[in-house]
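> call design_seq(struct)
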């Protein structure tokens, strides 16, 4: 029991570095509450507010569901990319420049598909068009994009086995890029169909919600990666030591390691853990951390697949084709 208490105490002291404490978090919550109150008060002003009730956009299910579907897509793609920037340097031992090159195929494929599908192939451009590609319903293109996005995430999930190379990640990133390239322009067209002539009000709501999705993706999927990786590292170290601890102490260790990962550099975390575990465990730390990071990344990708499924359900209520006005404004 003394060894367990000593291990917990050492890891806790290792994390005793400056980071945002609870008082700062409470202050942040207070400031956020004040900001929300100010926005609510401003929204009531006839001079400064956009009267969404008169615009009717938030009363139109088509606009709201399309906007939420686009937000979930942004959540998934931003979260997965954020986690890859955390995962690739550790699992592949790459520097920041090489990491960016490894993840870049997603964005390159997305740009190529958006330009190619709209300008060259003119997918879904005219329901009365001369070719099948022109007449293809935008709703079907949205579904196809989401399906390819899900397949790409699944391929990424399957490729995460030791040892991992940049080429192993390439197929999943390429398929994800194709899916996002098909989804993004057509979901906006269908969403603005519900907005009708309220283009300015629609843009004022649509764009900030997409920014919210990007922030939520980093928060939700990033937190999932760090939590599950921390949990598996703690369990792996304890298993290597042949120790078992009570659940409350295990939770404290996981929380302590999470704080270390979020507030220290990778080198500082490694040094802190190496200095606090028995020397017999040190040779296994790299393997334990790699396996734990892969497990955390796989769990976050499964969560991304879940959000993609919800996005698919929300998109089912959209019209098959955009209206003429929405096509001109998209």
């Amino acid at each position: 029991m003394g060894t367990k208490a000593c291990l917990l105490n050492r890891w806790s002291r290792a994390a005793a570095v400056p980071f945002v404490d609870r008082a700062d978090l409470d202050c942040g919550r207070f400031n956020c509450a004040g900001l929300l109150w100010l926005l609510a008060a401003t929204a009531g002003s006839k001079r400064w507010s956009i009267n969404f009730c008169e615009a009717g956009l938030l009363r139109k299910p088509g606009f709201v569901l399309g906007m939420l579907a686009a937000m979930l897509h942004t959540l998934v793609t931003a979260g997965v990319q954020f986690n890859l920037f955390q995962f690739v340097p550790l699992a592949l031992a790459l520097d920041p420049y090489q990491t960016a090159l490894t993840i870049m195929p997603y964005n390159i494929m997305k740009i190529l598909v958006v330009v190619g599908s709209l300008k060259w192939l003119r997918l879904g451009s005219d329901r009365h068009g001369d070719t099948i590609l022109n007449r293809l319903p935008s709703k079907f293109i949205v579904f196809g994009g989401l399906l390819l996005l899900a397949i790409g995430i699944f391929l990424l999930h399957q490729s995460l086995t030791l040892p991992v190379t940049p080429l192993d990640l390439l197929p999943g990133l390429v398929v994800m890029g194709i899916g996002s390239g098909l989804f993004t322009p057509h979901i906006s067209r269908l969403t603005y169909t519900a907005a009708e002539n309220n283009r300015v009000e629609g843009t004022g709501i649509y764009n900030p919600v997409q920014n919210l999705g990007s922030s939520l993706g980093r928060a939700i999927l990033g937190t999932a990666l760090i939590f599950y990786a921390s949990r598996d590292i703690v369990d792996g170290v304890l298993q290597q030591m042949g120790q078992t601890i009570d659940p409350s102490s295990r939770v404290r260790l996981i929380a302590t390691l999470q704080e270390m990962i979020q507030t220290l550099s990778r080198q500082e975390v490694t040094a802190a853990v190496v200095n606090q575990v028995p020397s017999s465990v040190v040779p296994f730390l790299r393997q334990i951390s790699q396996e734990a990071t892969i497990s955390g990344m796989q769990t976050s990708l499964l969560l991304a697949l879940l959000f993609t499924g919800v996005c698919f359900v929300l998109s089912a209520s959209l019209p098959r084709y955009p209206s003429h006005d929405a096509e001109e404004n998209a």
